[in-house]
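To the wet lab folks,

You asked to see what we're planning to order before we commit. Fair enough. Below is the target structure as tokens, and below that is the sequence we designed to fit it. If anything looks off to you, flag it before the synthesis order goes out.
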């Protein structure tokens, strides 16, 4: 698919069709603009016919707008699979939360994305397509893009699709394309330790966000199967390595689940783990998933937890919940349209 290719690769593709390199630049501009092939007026019909099989066929299937202005997008791919993404508006600009897999095999009990397991990985071009479609839908262009930040926190575990995810990061941050700085890209992982080291060694500079959600391994193993493979100690060690390599502060996500991980004792234990390390903890009230029995805490409990962390010398804030009324909040994204959604 052409959206999987860089500008140089697009020019090589054009040459493979016995076309001049400038046609590759035209292909690239058309793809980055999220144009349908029939909208690309600079290409004659015979060339359109030649590249039609390789031209991107992803689309925005549905849109849902929250009362807080958050927009949930449903993206459809050529094989019939769908994923969701969420556009959130902040003071510093628009942030798009995008998906890296159709489904997820990590099995975290608080997340809807994993209910059906992993269906397939998304390609780099399919991830890029989510960004391009939303940029165009919001009235953006290559010169005036409407997306300032990206978070790889939709359905899927990004480091479980490492090759395609890192290629996507290269594509979306390249100066010929949307040129979104890696400093404005956050990658969320449940803690695939070997891949964290690889990400650091290969020179990526994205913000690393760890889905921690527990203060010790025993609690973490109750809701996150990955905790059977990698301990919190191993994750923290990998994070320190990533920080030493990149200088990028680590973000830890901590979803509060009633009766599981929300005690002040857990906050103190977590604080002892993280004290003295350049990091920040995002406290997230659980967004309940109807298929699960886990229950949320009150926002007051969230603030108390954050205050307890701060007493231990750890930076912490309670994340604002956006898009909950449209199933677009953290942990709610799926690879299906629920009955009743319009």
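Sequence we intend to order:
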């Amino acid at each position: 698919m052409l959206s999987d290719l860089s500008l140089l690769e697009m020019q090589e593709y054009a040459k493979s069709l016995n076309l001049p390199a400038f046609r590759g630049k035209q292909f690239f501009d058309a793809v980055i603009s999220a144009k349908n092939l029939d909208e690309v007026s600079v290409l004659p019909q015979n060339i359109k016919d030649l590249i039609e099989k390789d031209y991107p066929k992803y689309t925005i299937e549905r849109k849902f707008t929250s009362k807080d202005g958050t927009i949930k997008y449903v993206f459809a791919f050529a094989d019939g699979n769908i994923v969701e993404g969420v556009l959130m508006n902040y003071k510093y600009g628009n942030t798009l939360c995008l998906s890296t897999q159709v489904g997820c095999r990590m099995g975290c009990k608080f997340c809807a994305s994993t209910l059906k397991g992993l269906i397939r990985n998304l390609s780099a071009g399919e991830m890029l397509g989510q960004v391009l479609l939303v940029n165009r839908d919001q009235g953006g262009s290559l010169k005036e893009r409407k997306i300032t930040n990206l978070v790889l926190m939709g359905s899927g575990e990004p480091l479980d699709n490492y090759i395609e995810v890192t290629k996507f990061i290269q594509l979306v941050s390249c100066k010929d394309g949307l040129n979104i700085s890696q400093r404005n890209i956050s990658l969320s992982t449940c803690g695939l330790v070997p891949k964290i080291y690889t990400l650091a060694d290969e020179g990526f500079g994205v913000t690393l966000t760890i889905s921690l959600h527990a203060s010790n391994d025993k609690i973490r193993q109750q809701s996150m199967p990955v905790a059977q493979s990698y301990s919190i100690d191993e994750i923290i060690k990998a994070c320190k390595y990533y920080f030493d390599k990149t200088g990028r502060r680590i973000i830890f996500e901590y979803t509060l689940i009633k009766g599981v991980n929300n005690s002040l004792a857990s906050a103190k234990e977590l604080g002892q783990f993280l004290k003295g390390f350049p990091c920040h903890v995002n406290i997230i009230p659980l967004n309940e998933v109807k298929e699960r029995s886990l229950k949320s805490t009150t926002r007051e409990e969230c603030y108390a937890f954050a205050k307890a962390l701060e007493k231990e010398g750890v930076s912490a804030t309670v994340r604002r919940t956006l898009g909950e009324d449209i199933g677009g909040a953290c942990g709610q994204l799926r690879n299906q349209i629920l009955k009743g959604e319009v």
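Structural context that might help your review: DSSP finds ten helices and twelve strands in the chain. Confidence is low (pLDDT under 50) at residues 338-342.

Thanks,
Computational group
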